[in-house]
Design goal:
Blueprint (H helix, E strand, L loop, with lengths): L3 E5 L5 E5 L4 E11 L8 H9 L8 E10 L2 E2 L2 E2 L2 E11 L5 H8 L3 E3 L17 E5 L3 H12 L3 E5 L5 H14 L32 H10 L16 H17 L3 E3 L4 E6 L7 E6 L2 E4 L2 E4 L6 H9 L5 E2 L2 E10 H9 L5 H4 L7 E2 L8 E7 L2 E5 L9 E5 L7 E10 L1 H4 L5 H16 L6 E5 H6 L15 E3 L2 H4 L2 H17 L9 E6 L6 E2 L15 E3 L10 H18 L2
Parallel strand pairs: 9-10, 9-15, 10-11, 15-27, 23-24
Antiparallel strand pairs: 1-2, 3-7, 3-8, 4-7, 5-6, 12-13, 13-14, 16-26, 17-22, 17-25, 18-19, 19-22, 20-21, 23-25
Helix pairs in contact: 3-15
Bound molecules: flavin-adenine dinucleotide.
Flavin-adenine dinucleotide binds next to helix 3, strand 21 and helix 15.
Length: about 550
């Protein structure tokens, strides 16, 4: 069998070529490399680690690269841990190579899946995609690539106008409910750190990342374990992606809100058209990717028979430190630390003695805390950063999980619980998006902070009793986590750490149940709920993969 070699460049999409003779790609795991070791040495190092004669290696690329910053006793030796993919002749044998495979040091490289499907059954059909976040964009892209006629609608504005609406919100403190940090071109991640790592190991991950590279993202996002793009670069990539999709025939309708479904009354129900703020659009299938903040749309769909279930979600605060404190705590003060730039962290505190687990999430090194709300009178924080992580501040969510046991029965009980807390924090901050804040040591001690220090939070902070504003469960979980994290990063729980709240939308409190095999909504024949709003994703990459996957189901099967 001939092996297809894939590579991507900035001009084209994916270039593919057949290797002249039969070949196979093997992944060599956990190669340690010094921070200053040139990448050109990887080929030889990987070949040696795999017991392969370097002269027999026909291609080499980094598959994954992460930083190892663990302490060994008092010493900290920073290094990269690399997985490398080596292309070698199929059927290559050798005693040392066979031993490395048996020991699990070398494994067959997973194959990436393609967006294009041969003999697509849905070609020529007409689909409406609702939402231009990662789930909607990648669904529309895959549909377009396979000959489906796509209308993509989004209630928010295209990038430039959305940018002006966001600036206006910061100037006037009045959000535009349709065009804001959550709604509009690119969805909720358009103003973000653009972190692209995911806990899902999916064959669509590499093609999704490669598409971003083809649109101008740095090539290392494909293998960097902490890959991020940054808001500034995302804003250059999105129009390029839109251009590619328009070239495939995808029609974008901005400022166009889904207001209902036109159903055929059958069993299962078939959507004949979507009802929008700009008129009805007939379709053969609907891809629903409205994100976790379109509470009005989900209620409306529920009233039309779309099943909605409550699910657990995360809630807590943003914590902010000087970036220098985090980098020192993670990488130490040696000269090597400077090579790595601002450090991030990923902290976990397991459940113990009746106190629930908590963890850090969505960490933004060199970032800014933002108010990611779409509804006036509600306060909800999140984090964003630019591509160089250049701010002096490091922020992350510190959250614990709430489920129906905490917020009560009913599909929308979690949404109501979220909303009530967001209102409480808004009012505690003075009712103008100023956020209540408390230093980490005062939070643990249960006292008001005398004066809050500077924060990157865009609307400013005021001293508040976050320990009292949060539900008890979150208070005890976060207090315990702060003590634990202080042992890992010195000063984490000190007055240098500032808690700003509320962080309530790290994930959504509802799920739209769908068939495992077809991804079609329960009770429907042609409705695909996708992404974070459907409870099927929890970040940019997982939403993108979910959108692409749902589109592939439709493309292959038709409905
Ligand atoms: C400030 C911020 C920073 C973040 N940082 C990161 C990060 O660094 N890394 C990461 O992995 N994740 C991050 N996230 C989370 C990530 O953005 C989301 O998980 C992801 O965007 C979800 O994708 P989605 O396509 O499911 O929905 P969304 O991105 O939420 O997109 C939904 C879209 O649907 C549109 N819409 C809603 N209702 C309707 C309607 N009725 N009619 C028409 N259109 C509608 C909205 O306008 C929106 O554009 C961040 C989120 C925020 C808010």
């Amino acid at each position: 069998m001939h092996q297809v070699q894939r590579c991507i460049n900035r001009e084209g999409v994916v270039r593919e070529g057949l290797l002249s003779t039969e070949a196979r790609t093997w992944r060599v795991l956990n190669i340690e490399m010094r921070l200053d070791e040139p990448e050109s040495q990887l080929r030889d190092r990987a070949a040696r680690a795999a017991g392969i004669d370097p002269g027999r290696v026909r291609g080499c690329r980094i598959a994954r690269r992460s930083v190892d910053a663990r302490r060994h006793g008092k010493e900290r030796r920073l290094r990269f841990i690399v997985h490398a993919d080596l292309v070698i002749d199929d059927g290559y044998r050798g005693e040392r190579f066979d031993a490395a495979v048996r020991a699990g040091k070398v494994v067959e490289a997973p194959r990436a899946e393609r967006f294009e499907v041969a003999g697509a059954l849905a070609a020529g059909k007409r689909a409406v995609v609702v939402g231009s976040g990662p789930a909607g964009l990648y669904a529309a892209l895959v549909l377009g690539l396979n000959g489906v006629a796509v209308d993509l609608i989004d209630r928010g504005a295209e990038l430039k106008t959305r940018g002006k609406d966001v600036v206006r919100f910061h100037r006037t403190r009045v959000p535009n409910p349709e065009s804001n940090l959550l709604f509009g071109e690119g969805g909720a991640g358009t103003y973000s750190d653009g972190k692209l790592y995911t806990r899902v190991d999916d064959p669509l991950e590499v093609p999704c990342l490669e598409m971003l590279v083809a649109c101008g993202a740095p090539p290392d996002i494909v293998y960097d374990s902490r890959a991020h793009i940054g808001t500034d670069k995302l804003h250059k990539i999105l129009p390029v992606l839109r251009g590619r999709m328009e070239a495939l025939g995808v029609r974008f309708h901005w400022n166009t809100r889904l207001d209902g479904l036109v159903l055929d009354g059958g069993s299962p129900q078939r959507v004949r058209a979507v009802r929008t703020s700009s008129g009805d659009i007939p379709c053969d299938a609907v891809f629903l990717a409205v994100g976790h903040s379109a509470r009005d749309s989900i209620r409306l769909l529920h009233a039309q028979g779309v099943r909605v279930e409550a699910k657990p979600f995360q809630l807590g605060v943003r914590i902010e430190h000087p970036q220098e404190l985090i980098t020192r705590g993670r990488y130490g003060t040696g000269p090597e630390a400077a090579r790595l730039g601002p450090a991030s962290y990923n902290l976990i505190c397991k459940a113990e003695g009746g106190v629930p687990a908590s963890f850090s999430f969505c960490m933004c090194p060199g970032g800014t805390i933002v108010s990611s709300t779409n509804i006036a009178g509600l306060l909800c924080t999140n984090g964003m950063s630019n591509s160089t992580h250049s701010s002096r501040w490091a922020n992350a969510a510190l959250v614990t999980t709430f489920g129906p046991a905490e917020y009560g029965p009913g599909p929308f009980a979690g949404v109501e619980f979220q909303e009530a807390l967001e209102r409480t924090f808004f009012e505690a901050g003075g009712g103008d998006y100023t956020a209540p804040a408390q230093t980490a040591d005062d939070f643990v001690a249960g006292r008001l902070s005398a004066a809050t220090r500077h924060s990157s939070y865009t609307f400013g902070t005021t001293p508040g009793r976050i320990d009292q504003l949060l539900p008890r469960l979150a208070r005890v979980a976060i207090a315990r986590a702060l003590l634990k994290y202080d042992q890992q990063i010195s000063g984490f729980k000190s007055a240098e750490g500032l808690l700003v709240g509320l962080e309530s939308r790290s994930s959504g409190p509802i799920r739209l149940p769908r068939d495992r095999e077809t991804a079609i909504a329960d009770g429907f024949a042609n409705l695909f709920p996708m992404g974070e709003g459907a409870g099927s994703a929890g970040g940019i990459m997982s939403a993108a993969i979910d959108g692409a996957r749902c589109a592939l189901h439709y493309v292959r099967d038709g409905t």
